[in-house]
Amino acid sequence: xxxxxxxxxxxxxxxxxxxxxxxxxxxxxxxxxxxxxxxxxxxxxxxxxxxxxxxxxxxxxxx
Length: 63
Known about the structure:
This protein has helices spanning 26-39, 43-57. The chain is an all-alpha fold and 63 residues long. The two termini are 24 Å apart. The relative contact order is 0.19.
């Protein structure tokens, strides 16, 4: 089964309309920093893209 992919296009930064802080692990931050180097996007934009992708595909089940 092929996994869904999040494709990030290199783009110019858009103006941000507000901030809400989120704490992430150091490992996650390093991965986001690597993506920043590859795409040129700021970390907040990368995290927003990842969250939107995940939230559109999340499925909640009961045990």
